[in-house]
């Protein structure tokens, strides 16, 4: 229970960075919730009914009403529970717009290219993904410098909306290094973001909901093995 008669249920999958993002928002707001783990190979009736358009996680169910899409969920949590915990979205309309812009950039440019670099089927595809990832990292490094104004977080002295948005990738930054030998943020090319990853991950509210890196690595290895199995079966 979230308190005050509010019931919160989060439909998700532990390794999803988008689900981690929603969990982080709930944690920084100090909200308790029912964590419902979905089998994405056999999606529950509740998930299919709660998000019939995309049939994806996360879905936040607040007093029986579903809210979909991780960035929308974070904004909803901040607005619906404005009196709880950390205020994530800036009060100033312009600053709020800037935070939303960069949050979209994280998903549309940074994460998309990083996934292409890691999972591309052809070497050319991977190389192009890596190229675009490096551009996106450089852009986000500059965005951090501007948004933080020399303070610890994108939100300044405290965690904000953009910190939570990018925070969903923190575990995968470490897991990606273990899996692919590719660290998204490093001390050489993006020292501000590399320091931010460690700083954010050390926060109690983050540690309370983020899964262990080893668990995510094992999940990714199992998924890779499963994906490779049909190819091996079809070979000579």
Automatic annotation (TrEMBL):
Family matches, as Pfam families: GST_C_2, GST_N
Enzymatic class: transferase
SUPFAM superfamilies: GST C-terminal domain-like (SSF47616), Thioredoxin-like (SSF52833)
Domain of life of the native organism: Eukaryota
One annotated GO molecular function: glutathione transferase activity
Source organism (scientific name): Triticum aestivum
Chief location bin: cytoplasm
Domain GST C-terminal: start-end pairs: 92-231
Family to which the UniProt record says this protein belongs: Belongs to the GST superfamily. Tau family.
Domain GST N-terminal: 6-85
Entry keyword set: Cytoplasm, Transferase
Catalytic activity entry: RX + glutathione = an S-substituted glutathione + a halide anion + H(+)
Compartment(s) of residence: Cytoplasm, Cytosol
EC number, UniProt record: 2.5.1.18
GO BP field: glutathione metabolic process
Described purpose of this protein according to its UniProt entry: Is involved in the conjugation of reduced glutathione to a wide number of exogenous and endogenous hydrophobic electrophiles.
An example Gene Ontology CC term for this record: cytosol
Name recorded for this polypeptide: Glutathione S-transferase
């Amino acid at each position: 229970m979230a308190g005050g008669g509010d019931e919160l249920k989060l439909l998700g999958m532990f390794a999803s960075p988008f689900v981690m993002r929603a969990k982080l928002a709930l944690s920084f707001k100090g909200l308790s919730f029912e964590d419902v783990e979905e089998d994405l190979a056999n999606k529950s009736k509740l998930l299919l009914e709660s998000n019939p358009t995309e049939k994806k996680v996360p879905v936040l169910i607040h007093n029986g009403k579903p809210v979909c899409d991780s960035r929308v969920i974070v904004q909803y949590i901040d607005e619906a529970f404005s009196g709880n915990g950390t205020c994530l979205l800036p009060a100033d309309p312009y600053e709020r717009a800037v935070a939303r812009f960069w949050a979209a950039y994280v998903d549309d440019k940074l994460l998309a290219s990083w996934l292409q670099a890691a999972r591309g089927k052809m070497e050319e595809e991977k190389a192009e993904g890596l190229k675009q990832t490096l551009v996106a990292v450089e852009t986000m490094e500059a965005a951090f410098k501007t948004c933080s104004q020399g303070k610890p977080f994108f939100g300044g002295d405290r965690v904000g909306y953009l910190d939570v948005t990018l925070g969903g990738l923190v575990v995968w930054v470490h897991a990606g290094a273990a899996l692919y030998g590719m660290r998204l943020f490093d001390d050489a090319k993006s020292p501000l973001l590399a320091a931010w990853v460690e700083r954010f991950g050390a926060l109690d509210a983050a540690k309370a909901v983020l899964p262990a890196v080893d668990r995510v690595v094992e999940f990714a290895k199992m998924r890779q093995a499963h994906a490779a199995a049909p190819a091996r079966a079809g070979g000579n």
